[in-house]
Design brief:
With 467 residues, this protein is α+β, with helices and mostly antiparallel strands. It has 16 helices and 13 strands. The mean pLDDT is 96.
Length: 467
């Protein structure tokens, strides 16, 4: 008989196999996870809303459908979590803000609708930094060390996965908020190409920088969920009508001859020593699997955050302008200050940033011409402590916000697909992430490289000591 802890830490694809073979039922999976949420999440605090009865009903429906031969695929009957930015029909969706207290959508967003069509069981809503405008996700704590943050605005998703409280989760990523919590919590996440996955029904932070995507405990699980949610959506004008491949089929384990770009500038500057060592070792592992490491230089990146901040603050302030002017007290202090900064941003500053962005995009296109993917640290540091405001790199101090965005935001600006997978642990026991970046709409190669690395390491198999 499989033990409850072993059930909670099954990879999604393994849970799906057991469900398909009738070794375990959707009801058993759901009940086991709900029990663990009730026991563990009082400390991790990753869930905003737990849908006990709705999840049980969905699990029963999935089980009955399978008995009648209506198996829908690897997400059928699998319990997952939804970031609180995503509209869920009949379930309060607050974006973790007083601004939307009591807001109950009358329809699912496109991604949630697709997940339900695939048969997934929605366990509940998990935390986000208020309107995704930050890297904290209060009050959620990092399961590896409860004195540290889960990082990223998708911190609830990352923490829930690391704590064994769901099999997959949705995230959103404007400056790194899928990849930062993936790195901080020792799980996997992918920000797809801009336009690959619909944002319809997901609260806006920045129209031109927001991406939606999956988070899970293995790369194969990312491939399964991404395949379910990707594709053109007529209700989202930002999506592109580009064929969606079978991402799981791309995971061959073979990366012999794959050209991996290793940046010579920017991405290895001001990095904590354990992060540098872990990422360097990971690159060595990829080379041992037959990949070719190719040095690349990306021009002009030193000013990239000066481009990112005007865009994100201006667009966020535009989205929230009416509420900010009428009820500023409803916003948390940090978010209100960011939005007020956006109100003061000059149109000329915004346009200058957009022009600089086009230059950065061209630099990345050029750097990727002779390689298949690039690899970098996901974050220059491990997860900061709760309440920490600055990070130190040698003699230099940097705000937690800037440090968290530094290696991730470039790929929001460029719109390129980027994944994070665990590649080590610091001496203090906190996880470290490896970022793998690909060409537009080539998530398949990103996932193939990530999966090959995962097959030859055991970092993703480690779990925090939560009981």
């Amino acid at each position: 008989m499989i033990k409850p802890m072993e059930v909670c830490y099954l990879d999604l694809h393994e849970a799906a196999r057991r469900v398909a073979e009738k070794d375990i039922s959707p009801v058993e999976l759901t009940e086991t996870l709900l029990a663990r949420i009730d026991t563990v999440d009082v400390r991790v605090r990753s869930y905003v809303t737990v849908l006990h009865e709705e999840a049980r009903r969905a699990a029963r429906v999935a089980e009955q459908s399978m008995r009648r031969g209506g198996y829908r695929g690897p997400l059928h009957g699998i319990p997952i979590a939804i970031k609180d930015l995503y509209n869920t029909k009949g379930v309060e969706t607050t974006s973790c803000s007083k601004v939307r207290a009591g807001f109950i959508p009358d329809k699912d967003c496109t991604v949630v609708s697709k997940l339900r069509e695939a048969g997934a069981v929605i366990l509940g809503k998990v935390t986000t930094h208020e309107f995704a405008f930050g890297f904290d996700s209060v009050p959620t704590r990092n399961p590896w060390n409860l004195d540290h943050i889960p990082s990223g605005s998708s911190g609830g998703s990352g923490a829930a996965l690391a704590a064994g409280l769901c099999f997959a989760a949705t995230g959103s990523d404007t400056g790194g908020s899928i990849r930062a919590p993936a790195a901080a919590n020792g799980i996997a996440g992918i920000k797809p190409t801009y336009g690959r996955v619909s944002k319809e029904g997901v609260a806006v932070l920045s129209w031109s920088l927001d991406h939606t995507g999956p988070m899970a405990r293995s790369v194969r699980d990312l491939a399964i969920v991404l395949h379910a949610i990707a594709g053109f959506d007529p209700d989202d004008p930002h999506t592109k009508d580009v064929p969606v491949p079978d991402y799981a089929a791309a995971l061959t384990g073979n990366i012999r001859g794959v050209r991996i770009g290793v940046p010579r500038n920017y991405f290895f500057d001001d990095v904590q020593a354990p992060v540098q060592d872990a990422v360097t070792a990971a690159i060595g592992t990829l080379q041992s699997l037959g990949a070719n490491a190719v040095p690349v230089t990306i021009a002009g990146l030193d000013d990239i955050l000066d481009c990112f901040f005007p865009l994100v603050t201006s667009e966020a302030s535009t989205y929230h302008q009416k509420t900010l002017r009428q009820s500023p007290d409803l916003f948390g202090e940090d978010v209100r200050l960011f939005l007020e900064t956006g109100e003061l941003m000059l149109a000329t500053t915004y346009i200058t940033a957009q022009r600089a962005r086009s230059v950065f995009k061209a630099s990345f296109r050029e750097a990727l011409q002779d390689v298949d993917v690039m690899v970098t640290p996901t974050q220059p540091m491990t997860a900061p402590k709760v309440g920490q405001t600055v990070c130190r790199f040698g003699d230099r101090e940097e705000s937690v916000f800037a440090a968290s965005a530094r290696f991730c935001a470039p790929f929001n600006l460029s719109g390129l697909p980027a994944a994070s997978v665990p590649c080590g642990f610091a001496p203090d026991g906190l996880p470290i992430g490896l970022q793998i970046v690909g060409k537009p709409f080539d998530e398949a190669t990103v996932l193939r490289v990530a999966d090959a690395f995962e097959r030859h390491s055991d970092w993703h198999l480690r779990h925090p000591a939560l009981k």
